[in-house]
Request: fold
Amino acid sequence: MKTEPNYVDYYEVLQVSQSADSETVERVYRLLAKRYHPDNSSSGDEDRFRAIREAFEVLSDPERRARFDVRYDQYAGNRWQIFNQDEALNDHQRDQRIFHGVLSLLYAARRRDPQEGGLGSLHLEQMLGVPREHLDFPMWYLKKRGFVETLPSGMYAITIEGIDWLGHDDNSVPDNRLLPRSVGVAPAQNGAHADPAAGPS
Reply:
């Protein structure tokens, strides 16, 4: 796939899902803008602040947001096909791959922003290339196990327990969440923690 050179994922910049309403967009923007404003001596970041402001200007304008959504859907649809839809996986195998896929993506988001890094459910659907109904059970399970939590912004985020489980997995975890299309989320093999249902030892 050929990447658009000027494409910026404004939803990722603001750490909100595509379904976030205008109030959520503004609330998250104010939170991030305060944190990364250059005048903030402890966490100020001029480049990050500029990016956050640009994202807010687009997502807070209905017409500009609608135009961006067209590009976003096209880009996400091409990029986030982690799973081969032609594979005949049974429910257990599919869930195992979704467990790992969700935790890997949330790990990458948390690593980029330890305090507020997370992803929305719609974002996860598009990134994993699976329909919402296939995420209902995995997300329920991961939350019950304590591997995933819900942030005040409504985004999903990986917990310390989830990171520890990934640490026992034989598969490597991406340094950022921009997984190339060729990457597959295969079940761990010969690992004591290949199955999340088995739990940490």
